[in-house]
Amino acid sequence: MIRPVSIRCGVVDVLWVRDPLDVEAMNNAAAKLIGEHDFISYCKPRDGATTIRELLELRIDRKGDLIEVTARADAFCHSMVRTLVGSLLKVGAGQRDEDWPARRLEEKVTQRGGHRDPPTRSRWSRSQISPMIL
After folding, report:
1. What is the DSSP secondary-structure string of 87-109?
2. Which region holds residue 121: left if phi is over 0, alpha if psi is between -120 and 50, else beta?
3. Residue 48 backbone class (left: φ over 0; alpha: ψ -120 to 50; beta: rest)
């Protein structure tokens, strides 16, 4: 059963993850991404647009059986949040170490180069629900 969610704006994505996740490792990895960086490794670049963003907050909280990811930035690039979450899921599932997302950030490899990690259907299923203000 999907329960009502209160949000201010945007879209809520629900991911069903089979593997247990190490939230502490995910938060350790996320903390290394905070600040102003060129996030080209985490987004689809658009012609004439910058990929330099200031990530103000990237936090993972366990709320009972749910894990909530909060991301705030001065702006987001196309697919940036999805790719950040996909990378953090790999850390949480033990497939990558806590430093991998920061190393990836420094690589500055565009997604067009095939270096993108959104959740895959074989490991996670994704459903979208409409945002509600309660």
Report:
1. HHHHHHTTSS-TTHHHHHHHH--
2. alpha
3. left
pLDDT of residue 125: 43
Q: Tally Cβ neighbours within 10 Å of residue 35.
A: 10
Partnered with residue 38 across adjacent β-strands are 52
Task: Give 17-66 pLDDT, tens digit per residue.
Answer: 777 889 999 999 999 999 999 999 998 888 888 999 999 999 998 888 78
Q: Does pTM surpass 0.70? A: yes
What region does 13 belong to: left with phi over 0, alpha with psi -120 to 50, or beta?
A: beta
DSSP lists the bridge partners of residue 71 as 58
Structure tokens at 34: 């905070």
Q: What is the DSSP string of 11-71?
A: -EEEEEE-S---HHHHHHHHHTT-EEEE-GGGS---TT---EEEEEEEEEEEETTEEEEEE
